[in-house]
Amino acid sequence: MSAKLEALSQQLQDRFGDKLLSKKLALGELTVEVAAADYLSIMQALRDEAEFSFEEMIDLCGVDYSDYGAGGWQGKRFAAVVHLLSLTHNRRLRVRVFAESDEFPAVDSIASVWTSAGWFEREAFDLFGIAFVGHEDLRRILTDYGFIGHPFRKDFPISGHVEMRYDPDQGRVVYQPVTIEPRENTPRIVREDTYGDPAHG
Question: Contact, 120 vs 132, CB < 8 A?
C-alpha cells in the first residue's frame, strides 16, 4: 500500500473506527464499506472535514452481487458504490454501502451532499431498483416510464418482459408480448481450402 493510501486508511480508522465494516486495497484505490445507517453521516464528514476534503463525487453506481463469484456470494445482494476525489489532498476513495433488504433495497440519498449524485442515483434506481431515501426526484432516467422491472438485475430476462413498437394505425407506441424466440447462436466458420496459403494469394 502506498504511503498516501496508508495515511488515508489510518485517518479513516482513527475518525470512524467500528463504523468502517471493512477496508480493502484494490486496483490502486482504497475501498471502505459502511453500514446503511452510517452512510449519509460518513459521506457528509468525508466532504466537510479538512483532513478528508473529498470535494468531488466522481461516480455512483448500483451493483447486484447475487451471481458474484460464480454464484458463491454470501451476504446482502444490492449495494451502491461511490467514487470520491479529494483535489486538496490528491487522492481517491471508494465507498460501498449495502442495502439492508434484498426485497426492497434502499439507502440514503447523498444528493444533498454532492448535487451531482442526483442523476447517478436515478440511474441506479432505474437499472437496479435501489431506492435512495431523501432524493427529491427519484424516477426513471433511462428506461420508459411504463417499463416493468430493473434491467441490470441478474434475474432480469435478457429478452425483457414486453416489447414496444410504433403502431402507425394508432399513431402511438404500443406494448406487446415478447415475440423474440430464445436461441443460442453458434458461429459457423467457412473458409476456402486455400485460405492462408501464400502460394494461392
Answer: no
Gap between the Cα atoms of 46 and 195, Å rounded: 61
Rounded CA gap, 38 and 9, in Å? Answer: 18
Q: Domain map of the chain by residue range?
A: 3-143
Residues 31 and 94: beta-carbon distance below 8 Å: yes
CB-based contacts of 79, cutoff 8 Å, min separation 6: 62, 63, 65, 96, 97, 98, 99
Question: In CATH, what is the architecture of 3-143?
Answer: 2-Layer Sandwich (3.30)
Pick from 113, 118, 80, 122: which is nearest to 99 by CA? 80
Do 120 and 127 meet the contact criterion of CB atoms below 8 Å apart? no
Burial class (CB in 10 A: 0-12, 13-18, 19+), 116: middle
Please return the burial class of 30, using the count of CB atoms within 10 Å of its CB with bins 0-12, 13-18 and 19+. buried
> How much is the pTM?
0.82
Neighbours of 87 (CB within 10 A): 10
Consecutive sets of 10 residues in the chain, 201 residues long: mean pLDDT of each? 86 95 88 97 97 97 90 89 96 96 96 96 97 95 85 87 86 84 71 66 55
